[in-house]
Amino acid sequence: MKKAMLLIGVLAGVLAGGCTFAPEEVDSTPDITLSVLEKKMLAARDPRGVFQNAKSYVQKQIVTARGKSRLVEVKFLAPDKYKVVTLEDNAPATAYILNGSSAWVVDYRKKSISPITGDSLQQLQTLVRLGDPDDSYQDLFGQVELKMTKVGEDEYYKMICYSKLKDQPPYILYIGKDNFLLHRIVIPAPRNYSSTVMRYGLYEGVMIPEETVSNNDGMVETSKINFNKLNAEIDPAEFLPPVFTPEE
């Protein structure tokens, strides 16, 4: 279920640039292997295997930036269909749709549909697979470095995940040393994006980030869950781009 939080917050960071504050860190040699860490992370966020067996989910978040709030809805249908819709005034404004090897950006107000292809498509596919229980970080990325790091008085495992694509900044994940839950994700220059989990909650047996704060291009956004449902009924047609009728 981690992917829902990432998909809402990190899409902008992957496909656009920004600036963010980097805290001072002190790195050291980890006391765990990457394989063991991945198993502990899975057990921490999905202790009863509920998410591993889920065939779909719907999640809604209230995203607030610069004093304005909007509703963002994420839908997933196994094995490879995702849709992230931003609503304004109770109507769809924009959407990212991923359907297997095809993806689109939809602007409902302009009635425009733009395919996502090439490196951007591969980045999106990697992003939405970050939380899949069956995917290893070592399989998703070309190289993964594991370190222990201390930020102030807090200790984390730091995973530096290098893309299989050339000239792409790494994904840097900070995992709590004591609870093995994702705390923060950073995409350094030239993306310069960060997203920090402020609070987790248990939903249908799955630990989900209830509140996250992201920084993209100097704009701070706060996201809070207000609805989450596993194994929801979803029409597969929702993962196709809409058909806009010509204006009279």
Helix-strand pattern, N to C? Answer: HEHEEEEEEHHEEEEEEE
Q: In what order do the strands lie side by side in the largest sheet? A: 1-8-9-10-11-12-13-14-2-3-4-5-6-7
Tell me the number of helical segments per DSSP (H or I, 4 or more residues long): 4
Q: Portion of residues in helices?
A: 10-25%
The termini sit apart by 43 Å
Biggest beta-sheet profile: 14 strands, antiparallel
Query: In total, how many beta strands?
Result: 14
**Mean pLDDT across all amino acids:** 87
pLDDT < 50 stretches: 1-6, 12-21
* Shape estimate: globular
Structural class: alpha+beta
Portion of residues in beta strands equals over 45%
Radius of gyration: 18 Å
Walk me through this protein's architecture:
The chain has helices at residues 2-15, 34-45, 118-129, 137-140; strands spanning 26-28, 56-65, 68-77, 81-88, 91-99, 102-107, 112-115, 143-151, 154-162, 171-176, 182-187, 193-203, 206-216, 219-230. By secondary structure, the protein is α+β, with helices and mostly antiparallel strands. A 14-stranded antiparallel beta sheet has the order 1-8-9-10-11-12-13-14-2-3-4-5-6-7. A hairpin with a 3-residue loop joins β3 and β4. The N and C termini lie far apart (43 Å). The model is unreliable at 1-6 and 12-21 (pLDDT under 50).
What is the strand and helix layout of this fold?
Blueprint: H1 2-15, E1 26-28, H2 34-45, E2 56-65, E3 68-77, E4 81-88, E5 91-99, E6 102-107, E7 112-115, H3 118-129, H4 137-140, E8 143-151, E9 154-162, E10 171-176, E11 182-187, E12 193-203, E13 206-216, E14 219-230
Antiparallel strand pairs: 1-8, 2-3, 2-14, 3-4, 4-5, 5-6, 6-7, 8-9, 9-10, 10-11, 11-12, 12-13, 13-14
Helix pairs in contact: 1-3
